[in-house]
Amino acid sequence: MLTLGLIINPLAGLGGAVGLKGSDGVALQALALGAVPKAAERTRQALEALLPFKDQCVFLSCAGDMGGDLLRELGFATRLLAYQPDTPSTASDTLNAAREMLTHQPDLLLFAGGDGTARDICTVVGEQIPVLGIPAGVKIHSGVYGITPAASGEVLVHLLQGQLVDIRDAEVRDLDEDAFRNNQVRARHYGDMRVPQLGHFVQAVKQGGVESEALVHADIAACAVREMEDDVLYLIGSGKTTQAIMDELGLESTLLGVDAVCNHQLLAADLNEAAIWNLLQEYPAAKAIVSTMGGQGHVFGRGNQQFSPRILRHLGKENVTVVSTKTKLTQLQGRPLVIDSGDPELDKRWGGTLEVLTGYEDRVVYPLV
């Protein structure tokens, strides 16, 4: 008998249809504008796949629209938690329900919501028990959700059938909705949860290739900052993609220049070649993060000549991270990226392929000549 926890955020997704770009803190406003709750229906779509397996599972859930009502309607064996949520429920109810759920240690915690709900669940649960999200929110950037409600149900069916299902860590990520409503994109990684993985049914973290360039830049920046090492000098090159990294760090940047960062602090801005060389003598560990030039594909030699041959040789190819949106790479129509450092021997030695960071923990291998 499989014990499944279920927490529904009844207000998830309300802000989408009425143009509020999310539901965090504006659910009542969305309802006043005529938004219709859909989280329960999205959950129903996931649970319908489990109906043939009613005798193989029992649910733990809250009373009312946080899960109990729907489970009773569908005829699943259900044990209700002692916790009584408010009406309408709030983020505190999700947190409190998750805390009580942990005391019962279900085999898997199923929850319906968006990235805000995932953050709340992650705050309490972390990696203590497996979880799986049913996508019901406006923003679904986290990698803890099925690609559709029905896909989440399919993952559960495989579990109930005793098939092998991998459990892997997946990121919980979210945007600052207030900033997003003001056209500012700030994506953050809030933690990891253990999620069952089954082929194409569980989504990856939203990343490169989406229609919003700003979102891709935010994903790249969040990943680049997360991977930064202590006491390492980072030379941040020019361009909008690298500017997003400086924004993620909360630092002023030089859009068309090279800035130096160490331990998330700005050391110097708009460096010339000689200043970069002097810094390299002070810092035994150094790396560079540069972007590609749109349309042309140059990595070095166009707009960033501060990275001279002697600096590139000192850094080494292995210490250079190239960042780019997939859209920008696609626009090259198969043409390779280009290094034109002014030293043909160096350019030849660096040629071949390189990895390009195109999203949150999303990289592609691309030719370089």
Explain the layout of strands and helices.
Layout lengths: L1 E7 L5 H4 L9 H6 L6 H9 L9 E5 L6 H7 L3 E3 L10 H14 L3 E6 L1 H11 L5 E5 L13 H12 L5 E10 L1 H5 L5 E11 L15 H14 L6 E4 L3 H10 L9 E4 L2 E4 L4 H10 L3 E6 L6 E3 L8 H7 L4 E4 L2 H5 L7 E2 L4 H7 L1 E8 L2 E7 L1
Parallel strand pairs: 1-2, 1-4, 2-3, 4-5, 8-11, 11-13, 12-14, 13-15
Antiparallel strand pairs: 6-7, 8-9, 9-10, 15-16
Helix pairs in contact: 3-7, 5-6, 9-10
What does this structure look like?
The chain is an alpha/beta fold and 369 residues long. It has 2 domains: 2-197, Rossmann fold, CATH 3.40.50; 214-368. 33% of the residues lie in helices and 24% in strands. It has 14 helices and 16 strands. The strands form 4 sheets. It has a 7-stranded mixed sheet with strand order 10-9-8-11-13-15-16, with helices on both faces. Strands 3-2-1-4-5 form a 5-stranded parallel sheet, sandwiched between helices. Strand 9 (259-262) and strand 10 (265-268) form a beta hairpin. Mean pLDDT is 84; it is low at 16-21 and 206-211.
Brief characterization of the structure:
The chain is of the alpha/beta class. The protein contains 14 helices and 16 strands.
- Give the strand line-up of the largest sheet: 10-9-8-11-13-15-16
Could you tell me the mean pLDDT?
84
CATH class of the largest domain: Alpha Beta
The helix/strand order is EHHHEHEHEHEHEHEHEHEEHEEHEHEHEE
Helix-strand category: alpha/beta
Question: How does the overall form come out from the CA principal axes?
Answer: elongated
**What is the gyration radius calculated from CA atoms?**
24 Å
Percent of residues in β-strands: 15-25%
> How many separate domains?
2
Percent helix range: 25-40%
Low-confidence stretches: 16-21, 206-211
CATH topology descriptor of the largest domain: Rossmann fold
